[in-house]
Predict the 3D structure of the following.
Amino acid sequence: MTKPVDLSVQLAPRHKTGLLLKNPVMTASGTFGYGMEYAELFDIQRLGAIVCKGTTLRPRRGNPQVRLVETASGLLNAVGLENVGVGAVIKEKAPIWATWKVPVIINIAGENVREYAQLARRLDGVAGVSALEVNISCPNVAGGGMAFGCSPQAAFEVTAAVREATALPVIVKLTPNVTDITAIAAAAVEAGADALSLINTVVGMAIDLSRRCPLLGNVTGGLSGPAIKPIALHMVYKVSQAVTVPVIGIGGIASASDALEFIMAGASGVQVGTATLANPNAPLEVLEGIERFMREEGVRKLSELVGAAWR
Ligand SMILES: Cc1cc2nc3c(=O)[nH]c(=O)nc-3n(C[C@H](O)[C@H](O)[C@H](O)COP(=O)(O)O)c2cc1C
C-alpha cells in the first residue's frame, strides 16, 4: 500500500483563523473566471483554492481591442480589469462559492487607497469568500493598479488600509516591474500582509508592421506564460528568503515540474494562469504531478520541499 502524502499548506500562519489549503495548487486571477466556468470541465473542488478575476468597486468594461497577442513562449494581455463589480460578485457569485468545499480568494483592485479599503470592507464576512488577494500590480489600467506596487510607501498604505478594513486573510500580489521587489515585499508584510503572491505580468508590447502601430489597443500589455518563468522564479527565490510570511509563486507554470521549481525556490503555494487558457486541465495536472513526484521521491510532507533549493 502506498503511504499517504501531505500536500496541505497553511498560507496565513499569522492570521487568527489561518488559510489552510488541502494542497498548494491555485488558479491565477483573470485566467479562471469566477470558477463556475470551469466546473463542467473538471472537478475544481480538488484544487487548493480558486482565485477569481480582479474585482473592482464598479463594473468595468476593460480596454479597447486588441487585448491579447501571442508572443514567443508567452502571451501579452491588456484586458484592463473587465469585471462585473463587487456588488454582483457578492450577490451572484459568492452564494455559489459558499456551497463549494474549495476556498475562493477574491482578487481586488482599486484606483486609490480608499477604494481598496471599501472593497475589503464590502467583502468582509461574505459567505463563500475565504481571503483577499490585493492586486497592486496590474499593468493595464490607467488609475491605481501597478502604481501601488512600485513604491514601498504606497504598498504599505494600501496593505495597511485593507488589513484594517477586513478580518479576512490578506494576500498582497506584487509586480515584477520594479527595481527591488524585496523592498516592496517587506513593506507589505510590515503593513500586515498574511502572504505574498508573485509575480503579476511583465510590461511589454508588440508592433503591427503593416499598420506601423502597436498591436495592442492599450499600446502596452502584460507578458505572461513560459517566457516569464525564470524571472518569476528568481523573484520568488529572493522574496521568500527575505520575508517571514508564505510566498505564492506565479509565472509560466504549466506543469508539475514548473510548480516544483517554484516550491524549491521557496514558494509555499503556486498559481497556474496562462497555461489554463490553452489547457483547462492544467491546474489539475500540476496537482497530480506534484503528488506523483512526492511519492516517487519518498517525500511525506510538501513543506519538506519548500525552499529546498536555497543557497
Ligand atoms: C488574460 C489575463 C488576465 C489577467 N487578469 C488579472 C487580474 O484580473 N488580476 C491579477 O492580479 N492578475 C491578472 N493576471 C495575471 C495573472 O494572474 C498572473 O499573475 C500572470 O499571468 C502570470 O502567471 P502565468 O504566466 O501563469 O499566466 C491576468 C493574466 C492574464 C493572462
Summary: The radius of gyration is 18 Å. Residues 282-297 form the longest helix (16 residues). The chain has a mean pLDDT of 96.
